[in-house]
Design brief:
5 strands, about 100 residues, disordered C terminus, globular, mainly beta, five-stranded antiparallel sheet, 1 helix
Length: about 100
């Protein structure tokens, strides 16, 4: 499992967690709003051997604009290591073309 939290300021944070579920790679993205004080579901990214690229599943309104991982990583570059093909890859070698 790989997890990263990004502090957006003003009490907002986004957390992404990658896990393997069967043959699928899943990245769950949660967000924390200062009025709530806890993380809530935002979106999910899915990858498998038969998918050419990561597929998004938006849940909250602000996540609907992310149709590609490149667009998502443009706003959240700290999550690049979670999208690496192999979780064992060195995080420093992650080269996302944004």
């Amino acid at each position: 499992m790989l997890q990263k939290v990004v502090d957006l300021g003003d009490g907002y944070r986004v957390c992404a967690t990658r896990k393997q579920v069967g043959t699928f790679q899943i990245i769950g993205v949660d967000w924390e709003h200062p009025n709530y004080g806890f993380f809530m579901d935002a979106m999910v990214w899915i990858k498998s051997m038969h998918l050419e690229k990561w597929r998004p599943l938006p849940i909250v309104d602000w996540s609907r604009k992310y149709k590609t991982k490149e667009r998502f990583l443009k706003d959240y570059p700290d999550f690049c290591p979670l999208f690496a093909v192999d979780l064992d890859e060195d995080e420093g070698s992650c080269s996302c073309q944004i």
